[in-house]
């Protein structure tokens, strides 16, 4: 049985995370594909005021800024990733507001954003689903009337049919990532062990991820006041056919603040 701290997400997303998930979160080509999806699906305007929620190092905001979007805020809880994003924006001369906040209680201005997105399966990290519901309530509070939301979630059916109890991959030539997973109801618990080829232990920790069915996420969205909910399943954004874990097959959810 895998034990996961309820606050695992407060310390997991550091320099090691950039190594273990580099094949997705440091893939510039994939980021461009994901931003293409954002632009097309949300019909973005260069003057939209956009909030990149659970932004990590702000890779999507950085790409949007390169494309001429003017009003971008990237919000994440990880001080390491926020600092990295600020540095990248400064190095490239891009204007993005980076803030370290809890996505449930951002303390940002009410009804200030026309678009909010959560990319790369970053929704569902809390052990208690009531915290996920609070995130949606906060998103609703922050959006302007008729503001648009996009959630990039893992495809629940794909996960149930393809989740591997044990997996490993080479993150770099010298670092290997092992994962042991278990799925109970709608919660995935995983133990992650990261070691170097010389046997040095880099990480031995656990995390969790909640998967949402179409009905469940639609229910949550309607409950907090969203309308025009649209869901597209079995979306693959990687160019090659490999096992990219929970990002292999995605479910793209959009909704409008009523």
Topology diagram in text:
Blueprint: H1 15-20, H2 22-25, H3 28-42, E1 49-53, H4 59-66, E2 71-76, H5 79-92, E3 97-100, E4 113-118, H6 129-142, E5 143-154, H7 156-162, E6 166-170, E7 175-184, E8 187-196, E9 201-210, H8 214-224, E10 226-235, E11 250-257
Parallel strand pairs: 1-2, 1-4, 2-3, 4-5
Antiparallel strand pairs: 5-11, 6-7, 7-8, 8-9, 10-11
Helix pairs in contact: 3-4
Helix percent band:
25-40%
Q: Could you list the spans in which at least 5 consecutive residues all have pLDDT below 50?
A: none
Shape descriptor: globular
Structural class: alpha/beta
Radius of gyration: 18 Å
Count of structural domains? 1
**CATH-level-2 architecture:** 3-Layer(aba) Sandwich
CATH class: Alpha Beta
Number of helices: 8
Instruction: State the separation between the terminal residues, measured CA to CA.
Output: 42 Å
Instruction: Report on the biggest sheet.
Output: 7 strands, mixed
Q: Kindly report the name of the CATH homologous superfamily.
A: Vaccinia Virus protein VP39
Percentage of residues in strands:
25-35%
Strand order of the largest sheet: 3-2-1-4-5-11-10
Tell me the total number of β-strands. 11
Order of helices and strands: HHHEHEHEEHEHEEEEHEE
């Amino acid at each position: 049985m895998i034990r996961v701290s309820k606050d695992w997400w407060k310390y997991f997303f550091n320099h090691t995370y950039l190594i273990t998930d580099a094949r997705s979160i440091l893939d510039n080509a994939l980021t461009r594909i994901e931003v293409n999806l954002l632009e097309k699906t949300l019909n973005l305007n260069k003057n939209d005021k956009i909030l990149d929620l659970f932004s990590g190092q702000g890779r999507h905001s950085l790409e949007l800024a390169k494309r001429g979007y003017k009003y971008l805020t990237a919000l994440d809880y990880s001080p390491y990733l926020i600092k990295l994003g600020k540095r990248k924006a400064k190095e490239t001369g891009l204007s993005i507001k980076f803030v370290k906040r809890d996505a449930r209680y951002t303390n940002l201005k009410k009804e200030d954003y026309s678009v909010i997105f959560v990319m790369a399966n970053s929704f569902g990290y809390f052990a208690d689903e009531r915290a996920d519901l609070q995130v949606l309530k906060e998103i609703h509070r922050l959006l302007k009337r008729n503001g648009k939301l996009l959630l990039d979630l893992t495809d629940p059916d794909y996960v149930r049919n393809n989740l591997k109890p044990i997996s490993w991959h080479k993150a770099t030539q010298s670092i290997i990532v092992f994962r042991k997973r278990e799925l109970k109801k709608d919660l995935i618990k995983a133990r992650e062990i990261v070691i170097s080829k010389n046997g040095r232990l880099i990480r031995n920790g656990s995390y969790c991820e909640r998967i949402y069915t179409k009905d469940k996420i639609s229910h949550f969205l309607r409950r907090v006041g969203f309308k025009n909910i649209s869901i597209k399943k079995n979306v693959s954004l990687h160019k090659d056919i490999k096992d990219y874990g929970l990002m292999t097959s995605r479910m793209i959810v959009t909704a409008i603040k009523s």
